[in-house]
Design a protein that fits this description.
Layout: E1 2-4, E2 7-15, E3 29-31, E4 36-37, E5 42-43, E6 64-65, E7 76-93, E8 106-111, E9 123-128, E10 137-141, E11 147-154, E12 163-164, E13 166-182, E14 185-191, E15 202-204, E16 220-222, E17 226-228, E18 233-235, H1 249-252, E19 256-257, E20 266-283, E21 296-301, E22 313-318, E23 327-331, E24 337-345, E25 356-357, E26 359-366, H2 369-372, H3 375-387
Antiparallel strand pairs: 1-15, 2-13, 3-7, 4-5, 6-12, 7-10, 7-11, 7-13, 8-9, 8-11, 13-14, 16-20, 17-18, 19-25, 20-23, 20-24, 20-26, 21-22, 21-24
């Protein structure tokens, strides 16, 4: 079936086709200054932070450092990722032979254009106040849909140099999503980035069925991500929806995991539009640690959890006893109308009891504009809104200026 496109607005979304890779390695870099040591001869160039060498001994020659703070009081380092990408997070390895406290007071920002010449306001990915041990790595997650070509790490008002032994950036390339308004229907269509489609073109519209996995390659956000520096593996959130069902965590490189120290690890999937949700299917890790898939709450949200206060509507729980490499299916009660899927580990038996998801599938059916305006469906949607504590006319939904003000347990 084809429809005449009346209105098309381009929206760039990330495709999870390279979320498990380091998209910064060996990319062009720059910095505000470079430390040069005469004895022994050593130049701590900016490219050393993305050379793929995780040796944290500064004098081994694989760490970047800015000049002393007297010469460079506002040091920065940046990497050119080559094109505009979706940036999901960054992992920084600290110096290991001394001076661990230098990895503090940092800002991680993303630019569309070169930060040395651009006057743009960057997107803030994260900040780092300190507390990273000698030679250790720390993973920082970016806000939803952070996009750009250049990633910059700066240290404003520094009293010591900016030292980075390795910087790993995870993210994804772009597909184009067309938001179409066709004969009073609003739908989302995934198409490849080329060839471009002009207004007035004829486009085939996919028909959604209850068996369609509507989560694949959708934007994902998590409270933390695990970094296995020994194998250059970043278990980033996008791996949970990349369509790869390999359950070998290390060799398959297609499983998401939270980081050690995250006491309430949570993963969110943005489906991009309203759907009637049938089920959420989670594939367990297969090489070891099957018992980690326990104490899991699976719920849905109507609103962006990083902008609105909303109680999730619970679909079900996973208490445990899921075999290695097996699937656990949570069926939602009807009607469940939602845009966001929330998967949260509610309790942990020890620090290694991580949230590990090798693949997440969501089955459901697209809720079209005409369906959502029918009276019978209106009642269902109203019930779903009420179940989530959303009463717009009574002011129960509050828009927040940033994600840090969201109360734990109410959407985040």
């Amino acid at each position: 079936m084809v429809f005449l496109v009346c209105l098309a607005a381009l929206v760039a979304l990330a495709a999870a086709n390279n979320f498990g890779q380091n998209i910064a390695q060996n990319r062009p870099t720059g910095s505000s200054s470079v430390f040069v040591n005469g004895v022994p001869p050593l130049t701590a160039s900016s490219n050393l932070a993305v050379d793929g060498n995780f040796n944290s001994n500064f004098f081994s020659g694989s760490c970047f450092s800015s000049d002393v703070s007297a010469n460079d009081p506002n040091p920065f380092w940046y990497v050119d990722l080559g094109s505009r990408v979706y940036v999901s997070g960054v992992t920084i390895t600290n110096r290991g032979d001394c001076c661990a406290d230098r990895l503090s007071g940092l800002r991680v920002e993303v630019f569309e254009f070169n930060p040395t010449t651009s006057a743009e306001t960057p997107e803030l990915c994260a900040t780092l106040s300190g507390g990273v041990a000698l030679g250790q790595s720390i993973g920082l997650a970016c806000s939803p849909l952070t996009t750009g070509r250049f990633l910059r790490i700066s240290k404003p008002g520094a009293t010591s140099p900016l030292t980075l032994c390795e910087v790993v950036v995870s993210g994804g390339k772009f597909y184009i999503v067309f938001h179409l308004k066709i004969l009073n229907f609003q739908i989302l269509v995934n198409v490849p980035p080329r060839p471009p489609v002009s207004v007035g073109a004829i486009v085939s519209i996919p028909k959604y069925s209850p068996t369609t996995n509507i989560a694949q390659n959708r934007p994902v956000r998590a409270t933390s991500q695990f970094n296995f520096a020994a194998t250059n593996l970043i278990a980033s959130p996008g791996l949970a929806v990349d369509g790869n069902f390999n359950t070998d965590f290390v060799n398959g490189r297609s499983c998401y995991s939270s980081a050690i120290g995250d006491l309430t690890p949570t993963l969110y999937i943005d489906l991009g539009a309203y759907y009637y949700i049938n089920s959420i299917i989670i594939t367990n890790r297969g090489d070891c640690c099957a018992e980690r898939l326990r104490n899991i709450n699976v719920s849905t949200l109507l609103k962006d959890p990083f902008r609105y206060l909303e109680f999730p509507k619970q679909c079900g729980t996973i208490t445990g006893n899921v075999a290695a490499g097996a699937d656990a299916t949570v069926n939602c009660n009807q009607p469940t109308v939602a845009r966001y899927i929330k998967i949260q580990k509610t309790s942990m038996v020890d620090s290694n009891d991580l949230l590990t998801l090798c693949e997440v599938q969501v089955t459901g059916r697209f809720a079209s504009y005409v369906e959502l305006t029918k009276k019978p469906v209106d009642n269902d949607v109203a019930q779903a809104l009420a179940a989530n504590g959303v009463f717009p006319n009574k002011g129960n939904v509050a828009i927040l200026p940033n994600a840090n003000q969201i109360t734990p347990g109410r959407g985040f």
